[in-house]
Every structure is written in structure tokens, then in C-alpha cells.
Amino acid sequence: MNKTLSMISLATKAGKTKSGEFMTEKEVKEGNACLVIVAGDASENTKKKFKNMCDFYKVPIYFYGDKDTLGHAMGKEFRASLAVTDAGFAKGIRKHLDTEENTIA
């Protein structure tokens, strides 16, 4: 497992992530989300919705991995989206995302 997924896993264990479309949207709109990650294989509709929402609320968004990978890192079933609610974890995850090749900021 790579460093990004390890950080997501740690953040989840610490209770600093919310996953699923509804919870991710709620965290962004309430101003709690420090970072949003959407699976690369999520529907175009989902990607567009979160991209527009994150632009509006000025939350960094990344498209990363696939639903199975994100879900597995969180110890759950597949997940199309997740919000990181802790600034420290968000910073660490972004650092790893920025150094990896297959991400789009």
C-alpha cells in the first residue's frame, strides 16, 4: 500500500474522514472538509458535482485511485468520495498526492 493510502487509513482510524457522497457533501458545505478525494472511476456526474462544489467552497480536490482502493484504505466497501476533516492529515495526504504521478489536482 502506498503512502497516500496509508495516510487515508490513519486518518480514518483517527476518525478524521467522512466518506460516501452524502457525508462528503455535508462536510464540504459545513466548512469541515480540508481535502476531498474522489475516485478516478467515479461517474462523470459525481466528479463534476464535487469539482464545482469544491471550487465554490475553496476546498482542494483530487481525483485518485479507484472506488475499491479508496474503500479498502478506509476499511470499508468501495467509496467514490471522501472528505478529510483534519488539517494536519489533509496536508500530509496532499504532500503525497502531489508527489505521485497519477493524480489530477
UniProtKB/TrEMBL annotation:
Residues 6-90 form the Ribosomal protein eL8/eL30/eS12/Gadd45 domain. InterPro entries: Ribosomal_eL30-like_sf, Ribosomal_eL8/eL30/eS12/Gad45. Pfam families: Ribosomal_L7Ae. Coiled coil: none annotated. This is Ribosomal L7Ae/L30e/S12e/Gadd45 family protein. It comes from Bariatricus massiliensis. The lineage of its organism: Bacteria, Bacillati, Bacillota, Clostridia, Lachnospirales.
